[in-house]
Amino acid sequence: MSSVSETLTNIQNEAAPYIYYTELFLGFIGCSMNILLFSRRQFRTMSISISSVAMWTTLSTGVISCIYTIHYADPSVTSVFYCKFRNYLQIFAYMIMRWSLAFACLDRVALSSSNIRWHSFSKVHVAYRVVAIMIVTWLILPVPSLFYYNIKGPICAAIYNRATQYYHPIFIIITGFIIPVSIMIISAFLIYNNLVKKRKRRQLMNTQQQQQEIRNQTNNQQRKRDRQVLWILLCQSIAYICATIPWLIYLTYSTIAVSVTNKSSERLVIERFAYFLVEPIQYLFPMSSFYLYVMTSSMYRKEFIMLIRSLLPQRWFNNNNNNNRIIPITDSSNKRIVNGPQIQLKTTEEVMNPSENIPTPATGIIIK
């Protein structure tokens, strides 16, 4: 083995644990927070909530299996069932994640539309039906992978023939990248167009002078929420595209190079190293989705802070409210010490002669 091959192999062996453990730690925290936040009442009707579960499944089937193969023998090269089922489940989770994001964009388009017919598609029962259809569809479409994935030498891979050589990569590229990304980009433009139209209508409605200030404040809040939604969708689409392009490049190359039979050992090492670089990148989007939402949405940040406050003991947040101590006072008439809340009771003379009463800070219950 040449020095280049040895160097690449050593880098792969040394860097793999750090990369996958970091993705597992940050990804599970982020996906768990997403699931908790999207299960709250404010976000429960958002169609994007289903993608959080799909992201968690993607990390479970992908990153955990990669970590297991670092320390133990890879079961995908010893068990045919595991080889087939793992790839089937990965395709299912990936596609549910991608298409739920695309459907979330369409849901925002319908919600921002002023057309009553289009606006009706943003109802909760419609979202439930679409999600159910989407799950059933992607349980069926990856079924062919159960037939052409098998153990091939030291790896679990798609056993290509003339039919599967082009079917699998074209299927993944079209259904996993071209269509979802096109939906995201078109939805972003449609949402922006709808928001511009809504802003113009609000400006035309502000004709009454006495309500101008109140409406301006309402419009500012509405515009802020609209910009937030559009910004989240744009950042989400950009992050998804950046995390998917390297994998598509590798998939295209492997499809073209699958017909090459006389590969040198150095080329095989370089191809394995390229796969090692590309595989963690495809987990970046499910790992970073929570942190992306926190950075781009103030509403999401507020809900996250409220969630943390609800999970932690309330006494941690009530210290500032308990600084007022109850100090015992002595009644000058009968020398009694009375403890109680900071409330001062008036005597009969004070009620009859209010002009003589001088308000003083209350430090206890005064009984005369």
TrEMBL record:
Keyword Transport set for record: no
InterPro entries reported in the protein's UniProt record: GPCR_opsins, GPCR_Rhodpsn, GPCR_Rhodpsn_7TM
Primary residence: membrane
Residue intervals passing through the bilayer: 18-38, 50-73, 85-106, 126-149, 169-192, 229-253, 273-294
G-protein coupled receptors family 1 profile domain residues: 12-293
Pfam family, one: 7tm_1
Membrane disposition: Multi-pass membrane protein
Cellular component GO terms held in the UniProt record: membrane
Molecular function (Gene Ontology), one example: G protein-coupled receptor activity
Coiled-coil positions: 197-224
Name used for this protein in its record: G-protein coupled receptors family 1 profile domain-containing protein
Compartments in which it is found: Membrane
The entry's keywords: Coiled coil, G-protein coupled receptor, Membrane, Receptor, Transducer, Transmembrane, Transmembrane helix
Gene3D superfamilies in the cross-refs: Rhodopsin 7-helix transmembrane proteins
